[in-house]
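Record now logged underneath.
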Amino acid sequence: MAFAYVSLVGLVYLSQRALLFPGTGAAPASEHAEWGENVSIKTPDGEMLHGLYSHGTSGKPCVLLFFGNGDRVGSYGFLAQALAARGIGLLAISYRGYPGSTGSPSEEALLADGIAAFDWLSASSKSEIVVLGRSLGTGIAVNTAAQRPAIGVVLVSAYLSVLSVAQSHYPFFPVALLIKDPFRSDFKIAKVSQPKLFIHGRRDDSIPLSSGEALYRIAPEPKQMLIDDGSGHNDIWNDRTVGEVIGFVEALK
């Protein structure tokens, strides 16, 4: 029994990045952009990130999107279209190791990708930037906003930390000793002084609402939280939540 447990722990340790970053793959970026235009962003350590970019109207902000761990940039045409209708731009990046981007994912690498994407967008658009993170991407959004002058932050299905979420899903494993990529948003949120919108589905069984609420409680003002009673984790985007994002972005000064 002990041998079986140790073997299982070893398997979890070795496979954890495959579990955390299931969207990785060697697939190239499509030559025909699903929305916006294809862009390439070079990171300081020499990796190339694929992104899709929809230009906004002059004087309007641009949203920088960090998606969930199983997402694709092409899946956000609905958001690009809704934002474009209000003159707001959108840049969504494919993390390193994800389709169209070089390299391999890790917490350190993805946090670097977030900074590189912000700096590229700041130089390319001259627009004010709102950082939006979804699920795994909320940790990247928090880190980016703590280090760069975003004018606002939207956190959709946020977590206190990946460590705490993993502990809730795997209570019989010594997760704190095993985890390579803890994404401690709880350690960084105090530096995010910008206006913040939290959105979470009440029925979320991947990242519990309690985790998002815990991060919200320790986040500094100004902040607001929308709990969508009818949504879980993978159906959080709907007319209401998209509308709340647009309203939040347009209200920023």
Q: What stands out?
A: The chain has nine helices and eight strands. The two ends are 60 Å apart (CA to CA). The domain at 2-21+34-251 is CATH 3.40.50.1820 (Rossmann fold). The chain has a mean pLDDT of 94.
